[in-house]
Amino acid sequence: MKLLALLLLVAAGASAECLEVAAGPIGSPREDLLRLAELTGAAPVQPELFRRWSGHTEGFLCSDLAPHPGVLQETLKPLLEFLPLESRSYFNSGYADDRNDGALWQGRGLSTELDGGFRLRWKFLSAAFAPVVAWQQNRSFYAPPNTLPGYSPYANPFNNGQIDLPLRMGPGSFSTIDPGQSYVRADLFNMAVGFATENLWWGPGTRNSLLMTNSGPGFPHFFLGTSKPQDIWIGWLEVQIVEGRLKQSDYFVDDPTRNRRLLSAIMFNYEPRWIPGLFIGATRVFVDRIPPEGLPAGDYFTRLFEGVGYQNNSNDNQLGSVYARWVFPSAQLEIYGEFARDDYGQDFEDYVQDPGHSSSYMFGMQKMLAFGSHWVRFVAEETNTLQKPVPDPTRATPIFYTHFDERQGYTNGGQSLGAGIGPQADSEYAAVDWFYQRGRAGIWFERVLRNDRYFNDFVHLREDEDAEIGMGFRGLHSFREFDVDWSVELAKRYNLNFGGDVPTWKWQLGITWWPGRTLAASQLLPGPRQ
Predict the structure, then answer these.
(1) Which candidate, 106, 110, 160, 77, places its Cα nearest to that of 397?
(2) Strands 439-450 and 482-494
(3) How far is CA 365 from CA 158, 216, 326, 334, 368, in A?
(4) With a threshold of 0.85, does the pTM exceed it?
(5) How far apart are the C-alpha atoms of 71 and 18, rounded to whole Å?
(6) Are 41 and 12 in contact (CB under 8 A)?
């Protein structure tokens, strides 16, 4: 009842202390609602530029909107809490479409997962054990075999053998057990250090992001950084370093000398003191092929601080991005964008002369509008990883997310680390959602163009592009201790994998049980102030 009373005060514009509210994992409806609460003035505005569940186990609902209210307070006694039990199922009638679903593989047919676990907090320590168990039917559909010597026939044939993105995960159904959103961390003196297998999200996007999303399974990694934005007088600064190991799928290439990889990344986020609500960030990533003799010890950390034009190791793939998010709570609006490159620059002059070389971009917006006692959300997002070749005889243009030596590309377990649409792709997405007291209902449209570079290099025939258009309906309803979220989409893929046209329908059903819950997740978003 205390939380409900606070929400009424917030909606009425009364002063109140910030109250901690448990958030959900990356991409969950609860995380989405807490971000929208920032736009409506019900929660302090947070950067939201590099997100992990262990660092966002709480949201804040309050009317005293001081920025960055802090991390969870330390508990004097050990606090053990069971995580909600969640069942999530997907069905694709025509072909695989795997995006933003973590360790699960959404092949053709039915895919279903179950996750749960527990979380422990004590003083400055916190940990969670949150595994995922999944089963994937993985039925067949039109997918031309990869005929490159040494490659699995299920390996992707459209990227010169330089990325581990199988069109199908083998010949039949299979099961998956993954550690999921598990972690252990310590937060002390505004510094966080820990080890995790949880999904990460870098950048401000909601549907896609260029360098890190939850489209694939999380990877085991160590992290070190700030626990919350640090006041540096001219604004607030966040920093985080990640070192982790990536795995190869079972359906790529059999070469044990090339299947070990190291991911090293450093992220910065800055909010100017004089422009509240503006967040500017940058990420730099190295993916190294670890040779049989191993890497020099210095390669694990020092390369993160190399100059932007420095090439120390031709075996690695260097990626970088800059991004921004600008939130206007008075207008219930946020705009955001990201620009990334997937190839090192020779020097600073190279970046000036050819800034678009091997680049991709994403931009979008969210707008909340008050309709009576309800909110309506509009969201639109454009993502482009096409990388059309340019006639430059002095420099080849690589396909985004791929690398000539680190052949698995920017993937983990055969799924994309970056945007779920993958390389050589373009996506336009728009949605409208209506929020009521115990849930939301909405509609969305999306167009996705795939394998465009391959089309330009080898196909050329007009109206033979591999493109999909779809429209879907979705909803979320909360009652007592349960949340039910669902979606149904009708789509058509023209020239699927440069074969025939394939219509499809897709549905998703999620049921989450929150034992002992007194307030539904959908009620975290107070109605407009009257």
Answers:
(1) 160
(2) unpaired
(3) 32, 24, 10, 6, 10
(4) yes
(5) 12
(6) no
